[in-house]
């Protein structure tokens, strides 16, 4: 079991901002996950990987694929208090789910 968080590289977010956006995405997708999967993922160490995407369109394409496969997912839109404009899409979380299913959506992406 794992979760992949895909963050945009084109926004130039600082490390702290990126960390906050990744945390928002992870928690949001986790909240939409069924109890059995949550329990299994938590018991297995909550494996996560953070990956790169080059823009908003890429995140929405990945989210559509995750939906098609029935995987939990969450798009994060920033409130705009610091580095980006309000409503800016910053990250997508896919999973938790089986490694194989998450990789079907995000397996071609590079590590952040």
UniProtKB/TrEMBL annotation:
A GO cellular component entry from the record: cytosol
Principal location listed in the UniProt entry: cytoplasm
Keyword Cytoplasm: yes
Keyword match Hydrolase: yes
Enzyme Commission identifier(s): 3.1.1.29
Cellular location(s): Cytoplasm
InterPro entries: Pep_tRNA_hydro_II_dom_sf (IPR023476), Pept_tRNA_hydro_arch (IPR034759), PTH2 (IPR002833)
Molecular function terms from GO: peptidyl-tRNA hydrolase activity
Name of the protein described by the UniProt record: Peptidyl-tRNA hydrolase
Organism from which the protein derives: Halobellus clavatus
Gene encoding the protein: pth
């Amino acid at each position: 079991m794992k979760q992949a968080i895909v963050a945009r590289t084109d926004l130039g977010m600082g490390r702290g901002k990126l960390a906050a956006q990744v945390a928002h995405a992870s928690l949001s997708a986790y909240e939409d996950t069924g109890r059995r999967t949550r329990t299994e993922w938590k018991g297995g160490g909550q494996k996560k990987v953070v990956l790169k995407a080059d823009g908003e369109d890429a995140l929405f394409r990945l989210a559509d694929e995750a939906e098609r496969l029935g995987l939990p997912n969450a798009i994060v839109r920033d409130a705009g208090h610091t580095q980006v404009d309000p409503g800016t899409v910053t990250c997508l979380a896919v999973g938790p789910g089986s490694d194989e299913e998450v990789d079907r959506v995000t397996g071609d992406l590079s590590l952040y």
